[in-house]
Structures are given as C-alpha cells and as structure tokens.
Write a structure and sequence with these properties.
Length: 145
Amino acid sequence: MTERIRGRRGDYARFVRLTTRWADNDAYGHINNVAYYAFIDTAVNQLLIEAGLLDVAGSAVIGVAAESGCRFHASAAYPDVIHAGVRVGRLGASSIRYEVGLFRNDEDEATAEGFFVHVMVARATMRPAAIPKALRAFLEGLLKP
C-alpha cells in the first residue's frame, strides 16, 4: 500500500478555529468519524457567515450538499483544538467544491482532509441558481493554486 500524502497548513487559504467537545469522542477515545464532517461543514459556513456572505435564515440563494468525502490520516481527541483550513478546489456556475484540512492543535500536517460540493439553489424554489457575485468574488480568493 502506498503512503498517502498529508496536506499541510500552507496548502489552505483561510483558517477557522474549532473547539472539540467531550461528546465528539467515541468509545475508542478519539473523535468519531461523523464529527469530522460536522467540523468541515461548520468551518465552511462559519467562514461565509463571518464574511457577511451567508444569512442562514434569510439568504435568497443557499448552498446544499451534493457530494462529500473525508480522508483520515491521524486521530484527534477532546480537548484538542482543530484548525480548519479552507480552500476552493473548483468554482462552477452554480457549484462550489470546498476543500478543508483539519489540523490538530499546532500540527502542520492534516489530521483529516475532506470536501463538500455545494450546489447553489434559490431558497424559494430549491432550483439551481448562479453563485451570487459577492460570494463568487470572495471564493475566487480561496481558489487552490
């Protein structure tokens, strides 16, 4: 089996600090795999909210998950701090591939790396919609080189 290359902090454009919770640990004493997906989703949405680009209750155009995945490299456990590095791997007319590296405490290599593909839809109809201009401009700054 070939060794998987772990992403490094320098591979990601922006960071969001997340705190693990006691409830994130499983019976094996480490963060359960489902919690990593919550970290990824939280990091993306927190970044957009902080940038003033997502109003979860009122945005006319919202992103819905169309695909997701995660590769695990090492374990984390409560009370570790997770630094979520966010970048955009692909930007389409109505879809975005967010790529997120999860880094434990001060480590430079990712504990896990995941992605979400969001399709933008009109909230009122749930039909595909173009990425709003302000959001697109912000996301272009996060594109993977």
